[in-house]
Design a protein that fits this description.
Layout: H1 2-21, E1 25-28, H2 43-53, E2 57-60, E3 74-81, E4 88-95, E5 101-104, E6 108-110, H3 115-126, H4 129-133, E7 152-153, E8 156-157, H5 158-170, E9 175-179, E10 183-187, E11 193-199, E12 205-210, E13 213-220, E14 223-230, E15 233-239, E16 241-242
Parallel strand pairs: 1-2, 1-3, 9-16
Antiparallel strand pairs: 3-4, 4-5, 4-6, 7-8, 9-10, 10-11, 11-12, 12-13, 13-14, 14-15
Length: 243
């Protein structure tokens, strides 16, 4: 009996992993049900970046998708909150076009009091489930034949759109600044906090801390720079930072 149960689990796991590998594109809503505002705490953007980190091509549902695909070529992401009085808990759920759950992460938990920090940490912990998934696109559910090759999309041919899609995919990801009580925390696409910013009396000048390094983040000529001293020399790093 035990052998039969084990065989069933193995077969189910195999079918499950095969199913998600058939999908390449994921749509993330711009607002989750448990939040009051669009992309509040940058949680929707962070979910998109998390999925991109693990190989999916993820888009917010208010973004223009550079390819014309059928609805059922997409997975649809959602973040579910299951928080308690003293902790924040979330998990990521991926469903197909028929509302079937294709993949669900474990609950990620944080005891941070600041909401932006708590959601960031709990989402990052939930995302560790993708490490075990070992996702790799199988090549199925690719571009459909719906669009005639001569058809113009927004004034461009399909070929031009495909070229544009490659360019979009190769862009370096933004670093995102999430509001905190006294300023912002900067997160990368893992998502992981890599810098903390503290407000000053100047609008575009922040005191910055990165581990043991302290400096300033300032806006110069439309670009953000993290400046600090290292071995008595001034270091100035240009950052692709989005507030």
């Amino acid at each position: 009996m035990k052998k039969i149960v084990l065989l069933f689990i193995l077969i189910s796991s195999y079918a499950f992993s095969q199913s998600i590998n058939d999908y390449q594109y994921v749509i993330v809503p711009v607002k989750f049900d448990f939040l009051k505002k669009d992309d509040q705490y940058r949680l929707n953007t962070l979910t998109k970046l998390l999925l991109q980190k693990y190989g999916f091509k993820a888009y917010l549902n208010n973004e223009e998708i550079p390819l014309n695909l059928e609805r059922c070529n997409f997975l649809y992401a959602n973040v579910i909150e299951n928080s308690g009085m003293f902790s924040t808990k979330v998990k990521v759920v991926l469903k197909d076009c028929k509302e079937n759950v294709v993949f669900e992460t474990q609950l990620g938990e944080s005891r941070e009091k600041d909401y932006a920090s708590a959601y960031n940490e709990s989402l990052r912990k939930a995302g560790k489930s993708f490490d075990e998934l070992s996702y790799q696109f199988s090549g199925k559910n690719g571009v459909t034949n719906e669009v005639d090759i001569s058809e113009k999309l927004a004034g461009k041919t399909l070929g031009e759109h495909l070229t544009e899609a490659v360019a979009i995919d190769n862009l370096e990801p933004f670093l995102f600044a999430q509001p905190t009580t006294n300023g912002f925390q900067v997160v990368n696409n893992e998502p992981k906090v890599i810098l903390r910013l503290f407000n000053t009396s100047q609008k575009n000048v922040f005191i910055a801390e990165r581990e043991t390094i302290k400096g300033v983040v300032i806006l110069k000529n439309g670009l953000w720079f993290f400046e600090y001293y290292e071995n008595a020399k001034l270091v100035s790093e240009s950052w692709n930072l989005k507030f």
